Amino acid sequence: MNDTTPGAVPARTLVVEVVIVMWVSLGASALRALLDFMNRLTIVTPLNEQTVSIVTPFTPDRPWLDILYHGAGIIIPLGAVALVWYLLHASGESMATIGVDATEPGRDLIRGLLLFAVIGGGGLLLYLGAVQLGVNAQIAPATIGDQWFDLPVLLLRALESAVLEEVIVLGYLLHRLRQIGVGTWWAIAISAVLRGAYHLYQGIGGFVGNIVMGVIFGWLFLRWRRTMPFIIAHFLIDAVAFIGYALLADRVDWLP
What count of other Cβ atoms lies within 10 Å of the Cβ of residue 114? Predict the structure, then answer.
């Protein structure tokens, strides 16, 4: 992968393109997360006594409608990924340009597993510490019932989050920023801060932790030129968090 578009798209056009993509995807999520964080800070209940739920039933009394809600929640955000696919093709590139393909399955899997072990373990410790310090809300990744589709929904939500975030805020954004002429570390910083910003709804711990994650991911992406390892790692982190919380929340006393 190189940092120039085959069609020599003007930098100004790419700037507008990036703004629009962020506007309809994770940039909008960052604004909502900031407002949610401000709301949490200005209510009476201390931040570390508040609970943030990520995946919860919509209509538990009507399973057929509940699964439709979950399906819509998975499919609609991926429209931004489709937009990235279209824009890359329009500029003479493809998803393979940012390393979203199946050309290196073994290497991608090994890298993804290593990232999962390091980032997942470190992230859990940071979260627990942030809650104890009072700068993070308690996260309830998934509260599910006993429907047959609960486990598939959690796995699909983890996959949707991994694909959406890593394709847009890592692969696409870093690729376009480098094409525009943004320096390596500035590009990594922009991507990492955006990643932290749309996790602000969790609190300061979620913000800082995801910035650190973003810096590591950004640096490695620009070395490997592959998005797939990060999709794998992100999927595993979220899948373990969702399913692990749903199974262990009422059985262990160390999990907030």
Answer: 12
Going along the chain, which residue ranges are E strands?
Answer: 51-55, 138-142
Kindly provide the b/e burial profile for residues 219-242, where b requires at least 16 CB atoms within 10 angstroms of the residue's own CB: ebbbebbbbbbbbbbbbbbbbebb
The helix (H) or strand (E) run that includes residue 207 is helix 204-224
Query: What's at 233, amino acid-wise?
Result: A
pLDDT recorded at residue 9: 85
Instruction: Write down the pTM of the prediction.
Output: 0.92
Say how far apart CA 29 and CA 45 lie, in whole Å.
24
Question: 223, 217 in Cβ contact below 8 A?
Answer: no
CA dihedral 196, 127, 75, 160 (to 10 degrees): 90
| Average pLDDT over every residue of 52-69 | 91
The CA–CA distances, whole Å, from 54 to 50, 57, 138, 202 equal 13, 10, 11, 10
pLDDT of residue 2: 47
Longest CA span, the chain = 57
Query: Is the Cβ–Cβ distance between 207 and 199 less than 8 Å?
Result: yes
- In this prediction, residue 140 carries a pLDDT of 84
Rounded distance between C-alpha atoms, residue 175 and residue 168, angstroms: 10
Upper half-sphere CA count for residue 157 (Cβ side, 13 Å): 26
Please give the Cα distance from 51 to 219 (Å, whole number). 32
Closest CA to 160 of 244, 1, 65, 54: 54
